[in-house]
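B., you asked whether I could sanity-check this one before it goes into the benchmark set. Here's the sequence:
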Amino acid sequence: MIMNPLPCALSLLALLQSAQPVHGQTPTNTSQHPIKGSSSVPPITTDSVDNDKNYTAPYFPLLGFKEYPENPILSPNPANNWESAYLYNPSAIVVDDKVWLLYRAQNISKVSTIGLAWSTDGYNFTRYNQPVLTPTESYELPGGCEDPRVVRVNGTFYMTYTGFDNTTARLCLAASTDLVNWKKYGPILPNVTDVIYHWDQPTNPYNPREGWSKSGAILNERQPDGLYHMHFGDSFLYYANSTDLIRWNVTRFQQPYAQKLNIWEQALMESAAPPVKTRDGMWLKVYNGVGTGVGGYKPGQYSTGQMLIDPVNQPFGPPIARLETPLLQPTSVHEIDGQVDNVVFSEGLVQFHGKWFMYFGQGDAFLGVATTDVQP
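And here's what the prediction gave me:
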């Protein structure tokens, strides 16, 4: 992830297409779904409609997710250098009766860019042949632009992502009206403080950290306090707010919004998809947790969980409730043996055509989906 970008030679591309993947090597395209590329993108305008036409808000908890048997649904494309090695960690949004994915892609030098794909059924995607966000700024180089999460408010898309300069991760923001052309607003929490937990070094488990931030998930409605809310962080979950979705405020040395409670999330916690409002006015939040090797969870295992939050009455936390066991955890070969082993990392949750679709990265290498029915 941290090397300077290098062009891919034709011989290397041929190798990527033909070689069988082994641990530590670039994977081949093992998806059962053919690669469909396009040089243009369906237009999104001010008249474009958000959400499924029969959208029904959920209750907490939203259960029953089953992995799609034909995962991965998107794989690296050796024909495009920027997405030739790894493709994973997608955000999702429904506009104009299509599911749109913004996903993280890497070339053989592990430089991260953000790509765009769309689907009319939630499973089979066409991808834009060009990245929509590339590393151009000092805070993004040489690592790149990582892990997008997107919401749409009043016709504008707001995408948080991680700019990585090979030393420090910084939570950044970009805005667009069409998902293709983005304006960057730079790191949005430059003076943030948190702690890092060295779970594998029990003699010195916690250290303070300055300026490191990532994994921002925005609630897409202004709350009664007049503010937009966001949760971020990858040690604990923390809280930030904004009046305009561009400039974000955070309290230094604040208490975490959500502590680690469950055995499977003791190493790290990160937001997954942006929270979803429930039928009773609360918000359902999915998040990712990392285990430490106890309780039957492997050391470093990433799984996806769910919590219920109340931004009206408890804007600074803690959550109202959370599931004790993960919704999703690594089960397939793509998730168990990957660029990073034992990883399911969710970032997209949308309702589409009578189902909820959860989109996630598999082993930091491929892109998969799990679904469950809309609750009656």
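One thing to flag: Confidence is low (pLDDT under 50) at residues 1-24. Otherwise nothing jumped out at me.
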